[in-house]
Amino acid sequence: MASIRTAVNIPRVLASSSRLIPASIPISCGVAVPRLQVHRYSSTSSTPTRPCPSCNTPISIPTSPCPSCSKIVGIPTSISHHSLLHLSDPVTNAASASTSTFDIPAELTRLPAYGFDLDIKGLRGKMLRRQMELHPDKYSGDEGDVRLARELSGRVNGAYEVLRDPLKRAEYLVCSPLPLFCFLLPTTIFPAIEPVAHGSYQRKS
Amino acid sequence: MLLAEILEAREELEMAESPEEVESLRQTNQEKVDETIAALKEAFTGDPPDFQKAKGLAVQLKYWQGLEEAAKEWSPK
Q1: Residue B51 to residue A166, Cβ atoms within 8 A
Q2: Best mutation site among B6, B55, B65 for testing chain A: the one with the most A CBs within 10 Å?
């Protein structure tokens, strides 16, 4: 299926998710999701880089701080959680000349089980290392650097919280080919029995 | 069918009278969680990954996890 066709299908899928699907519909005949073509890219030669704002050395995305002058450097917000935690390397969007847009599906396709199959211990290790590199206390000399370090370590935490949890990880990956998929995710499909999940058993005690 | 299975498990929890019963329910539930995670891995392993299947499995996982939360909160009447 051509990607353009997929894009055209989105509004129809969205429209049907919110109103037309009864709460009791079995999962097996859930919302029609267009089957996606995941393009395989021939391995891109190098990971994208950006120049260090302080010493101008090219630094691979998402490396930060700069390995040569230790200046903390911003990380594009659009990279994948996997890249942010150094579990993979970002793939730049071939259709765009800019190095700040990334082709996350192309990147995830290179990972085992599309990035679902993760070693949780290894993941934690990567997160801790990243938090050490980006710890705000390391940059106490400069207010802007501290702010940036806080923002980046917050993002690292957020990415870790998503990837460590199988449900959040699955939701993230399902959303990755088309961000609009997120609207179709669990809570919107079976709202009816969800309230039973919490509360009703507490009331008895 | 999943919905029936979940409702049944919830009813079982509702009817449970001893911590042992709840514990055995939680064990069965944990197996469901593990099976669902394994199935998710398989769905994502395809080329291309089966996103529709993964989405359905994520819904299932959400419900099994919800059941676990409810079971953790269980206390004798």
Answers
A1: no
A2: B55
